[in-house]
Design brief:
With 140 residues, this protein is mostly helical. Helices cover 46% and strands 9% of the residues.
């Protein structure tokens, strides 16, 4: 009788411990979290840089406006307007392109259309303007 109670039955042999699978799923979750955090941090760094550039450009435009009877051109090349008198160089967006500029009686509009240079998008493809509400990034 003792020999029968020690022998594993067929149903016990077919069951395996879930511990290795739990460990694999846990490890994959950690790797995914690290990767997503890295992408999110990079997006925040780019957004911070873009809005810091906007701040520098807007300051130069205000100095330009002060010397031109309170007026700004409706559109134009920021380099031609601001370099070298108001800025040594006009910064480029993180993808090496000039920021878009327009002005009207309502104010100044600066923009970049992300890595893919088209309207819309998320992450690196996200549009940024000086009116998009991301200015709080500069306060951090």
């Amino acid at each position: 009788m003792a020999a029968l109670s020690q022998a594993p039955d067929a149903s016990e042999k077919s069951r395996r411990s879930p511990l290795p699978w739990v460990a694999v799923v846990f490890a994959m979750g950690i790797v995914l979290a690290v990767v997503l955090t890295a992408f999110h941090r990079r997006d925040n760094e780019q957004a911070h840089r873009i809005h810091a550039d906007f701040s520098v450009i807007l300051d130069a435009l205000e100095r330009y406006r002060g010397e031109h009877q309170g007026r700004l051109p409706e559109e134009g090349d920021l380099d031609e307007m601001l370099v070298p008198k108001y800025l040594p160089i006009v910064p480029l967006d993180p993808w090496g392109r000039p920021y878009q500029y327009a002005s009207n009686s309502q104010g100044v509009f600066l923009a970049t259309f992300g890595r893919e240079n088209g309207r819309g998008g998320v992450g690196e493809d996200q549009d940024h303007t000086n009116h998009d509400g991301h200015q709080e990034l500069l306060r951090r």
